[in-house]
Design goal:
By secondary structure, this protein is an all-alpha fold. The chain is built from 15 helices and no strands.
Amino acid sequence: MPYWRLSGFYFFYFASLGVLIPYWSLYLKSLGFTAAAIGSMMAIIMATKIISPNIWGWVADHTGKRMAIVRLGGLLSVIAFAGVFISQQYWWLVIVMMLFSFFWNATLPQFEATTFSHLGEHTHRYSSVRLWGSVGFIVAVWIIGQQLEGEKISYLPFVLMGLFITIWASSLIVPEEEAGHLKLTHEPLRKVLRRPEVTGLLIICFLMQMGHGPYYTFYSIYMQDYGYSLSFIGSLWALGVFAEVLVFMRMHKLVPKFGLKRLLIASLLLASLRWVIVALFPMSMPLMIMAQILHAASFGVYHAVAIQLIHNYFVGQHQGKGQALYSSVSFGAGGAIGSLYAGYTWESFGTTTTFIIAAIVSLVAAYIAYKKIPA
């Protein structure tokens, strides 16, 4: 298994995410956009995941050329993102982010499928590879928080462009061979999707990421409005992902001990607790730190469990489609709806209500997991 080449791609991909998600909304705010406009532009990044991964997943499953798609998507996303340097008008940025994210969102699901192909029977080692993505996120979010305070946020597009180029370059050294064409399965995809545990899991993934929508879109602005510095905000983001890394390092022991269902329910309940804390106690630094540590559950445990369940449910030629569905339903549809509702409730009903909605959504997901996911 090409451990370091796989890990390197995750490192740079999530480093770019560590710049884009926490700080892009602040960059847009510096350009004078309203909360509704920021929410809609952030939603575009999520919404393209509804379509893009499924189109490219279908191509990958029928050609077996997953890494070729990753490389092409990486290159085209660089070209598309260059449009941000041409104009800063709202509709122009909407078009640029739509094109950019269509190609950028094609890469990760196919790389996830490639990683599992390389892992073979050792799927429990996924977290030890994926954790380097979390390390990349931590490094990026911390450095940007330290360096781009105040007016320096204007340099953000240049940092992102450099990272997107690096993602494409790192994809060139990951081998294609072990991610080759998969044998056809006898079970049609529609039959797989009709299974209650599969339908339940996809609904859970949608709700979990919908609950994260306000966090990914407005958390940095939220903290800044309560007087926290950008460097401290960056440290909070880094802390959350550091907690996630620690969980990834332990998942190979937690899964056999507790089982996937129990871990999934626990992650959803702790996510709900996290959003209640963020909603009610933003002025309490200790509680904000505690809420970020809960990222270990609300993303770390959840993602490791969900992606393993997807791998178990979607086999053979459906593997790429399964990863694409996971990405499009959760980070795509769920993230987009979360960003959109947050954008409109933020100004109309207040920040507390926005995060309380997220907590309720996570509780509903926990109930579905209890009822639908087999032990």
